[in-house]
């Protein structure tokens, strides 16, 4: 709470000092404007006074040039007279190179109307005096005005008249008339400028008073704020010192904990190193066992598999070893394409049955026992698949099993079926004939000739039967040799001489 009040007090000081500085800036701006206005007023007074003095001085100079010409007759002074008059009227350029009449210069300055009228009046009196001087200049040259006012009348130069015109009381009275409006103008100008300067000075004093007061207040608040901040900073430094002590103490405790932790980490690293070495040893043993298992399964008369069953019934092989049955190209380390190859080589008639059996086994999770046909090198081969499911911890079902080529067994069974068929159908025909003839002999009174005829028929039937049995024996022997089974079963055959012994 105390810290909150200190922060609020600090904010109050900050806002107050900021407001005072802004106020000082505004007052300084107004003071600068006031000073600029005073400077403009003084500059205006100087320029207007200069123009008034120029009117007075040019009038005096024109009088001097005119009188000098009349007294000496030197045309240089006449030329200077007319040059000065042209400069004042703006006909010729001033020494600065600018052409501007005295009256035009007044328009460009901030002159009051009554002041302007006084200067115009002085200029009119000066121009009237110029007319008198013009008559005197022409009289000195012997030129006099006609009825139109033009100096066309030629006569004897009258310097006396010219001198009298430039020195009589009327001339001096006209010159006094010029000076009076100029003096009036200067008096009015001084009064106006002085009044405004006085008002501007009073404003300046007010601004200065505000600025100085604000500076004192700002200095006081700043000093007080510095004291408050100093106290606050000292308090914070003390708190910081206490915090540093706590940090130092915590660092010492942390250093001790780090040492203990380093010891634990080192011990843990040793344990991990030992476990890693054991793991590497186990891995090497597993690798050796895996290699041994691969060698063993390489001699299995069939293919060993590890696979998953997908939702569409297609198996996805995870491992395959061909054993002694080269069913796929490649080895068990690369089974990425075997699933697709299996789907492609399945016989079209067995494909639906194969995938349906896979689906049923996936649902029931029972032992898979399936015979199917494949096309290998343009030949149809029979295969027998047996696999058992194993459910892993993540509820994933993996099937382990093997397939083998049972084409020789199927061929052997087909041969036996063929033998049975031949015995039951082909050999049955002569036997039935013999039975019929035997029944006919037993039921009829036969003569010797009939018996002899029947005996010949019996002989033909027996010969036909003997020939057929021999042909069957040769055909079955060839079919047996065409199978892959190289098994001698002669010791298991009953070599009886009679069928029912």
Automatic annotation (TrEMBL):
Residues passing through the membrane, by range: 12-32, 206-229
Chain segments annotated as coiled-coil in the UniProt record: 230-299
E.C. number(s) listed in UniProt: 2.7.13.3
A GO MF label: phosphorelay sensor kinase activity
Naturally occurring in which organism (per UniProt): Taibaiella soli
Protein's recorded name: histidine kinase
Primary enzyme class: transferase
CDD domains associated with the record: HisKA, PAS
Entry-linked Gene3D superfamilies: PAS domain
Catalytic activity: ATP + protein L-histidine = ADP + protein N-phospho-L-histidine
Alphabetic keyword roster: Coiled coil, Membrane, Transmembrane, Transmembrane helix
């Amino acid at each position: 709470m105390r810290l909150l009040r200190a922060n609020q007090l600090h904010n109050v000081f900050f806002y107050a000092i900021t407001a005072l500085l802004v106020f000082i800036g505004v007052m300084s701006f107004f003071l600068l404007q006031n000073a600029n206005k005073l400077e403009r007023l003084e500059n205006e007074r100087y320029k207007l006074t200069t123009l008034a003095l120029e009117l007075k001085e040019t009038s005096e100079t024109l009088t001097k040039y005119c009188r000098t010409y009349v007294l000496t007759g030197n045309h240089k002074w006449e030329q200077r007279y007319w040059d000065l008059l042209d400069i004042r009227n703006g006909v010729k350029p001033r020494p600065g190179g600018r052409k501007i009449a005295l009256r035009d210069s007044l328009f460009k300055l901030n002159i009051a109307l009554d002041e302007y009228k006084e200067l115009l009046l002085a200029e009119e009196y000066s121009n009237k005096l110029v007319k008198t001087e013009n008559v005197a200049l022409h009289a000195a040259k012997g030129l006099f005005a006609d009825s139109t006012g033009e100096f066309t009348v030629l006569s004897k130069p009258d310097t006396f008249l010219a001198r009298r015109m430039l020195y009589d009381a009327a001339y001096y009275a006209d010159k006094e008339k010029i000076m009076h409006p100029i003096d009036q103008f200067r008096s009015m100008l001084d009064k106006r400028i002085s009044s405004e300067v006085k008002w501007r000075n009073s404003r300046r004093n007010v601004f200065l008073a505000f600025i100085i007061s604000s500076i004192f207040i700002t200095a006081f608040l700043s000093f007080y704020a510095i004291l408050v901040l100093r106290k606050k900073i000292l308090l914070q430094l003390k708190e910081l010192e206490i915090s540093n002590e706590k940090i130092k103490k915590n660092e010492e405790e942390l250093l001790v904990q780090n040492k203990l932790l380093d010891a634990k980490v080192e011990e843990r690293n040793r344990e991990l190193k030992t476990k890693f070495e054991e793991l590497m040893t186990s891995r090497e043993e597993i690798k050796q066992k895996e290699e041994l298992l691969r060698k063993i399964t390489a001699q299995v008369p069939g293919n060993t598999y590890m696979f998953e069953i997908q939702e569409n019934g297609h198996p996805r092989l995870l491992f395959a070893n061909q054993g002694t049955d080269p069913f796929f190209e490649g080895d068990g380390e690369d089974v990425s394409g075997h699933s697709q190859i299996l789907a492609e080589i399945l016989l079209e008639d067995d494909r639906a049955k194969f995938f349906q059996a896979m689906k049923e086994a996936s649902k029931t999770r029972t032992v898979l026992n399936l015979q199917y046909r494949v096309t290998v090198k343009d030949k149809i081969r029979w295969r027998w698949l047996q696999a058992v499911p194993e459910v892993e911890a993540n509820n994933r079902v993996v099937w382990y099993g093997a397939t083998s080529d049972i084409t020789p067994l199927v061929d052997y069974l087909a041969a036996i079926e063929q033998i049975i068929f031949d015995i039951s159908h082909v050999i049955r025909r002569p036997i039935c004939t013999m039975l019929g003839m035997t029944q006919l002999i037993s039921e009829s009174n036969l003569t010797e000739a009939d018996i002899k005829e029947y005996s010949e028929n019996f002989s033909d039937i027996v010969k036909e039967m003997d020939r057929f049995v021999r042909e069957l024996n040769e055909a079955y022997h060839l079919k047996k040799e065409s199978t892959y089974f190289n098994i001698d079963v002669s010791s298991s055959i009953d070599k009886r001489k009679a069928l029912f012994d």
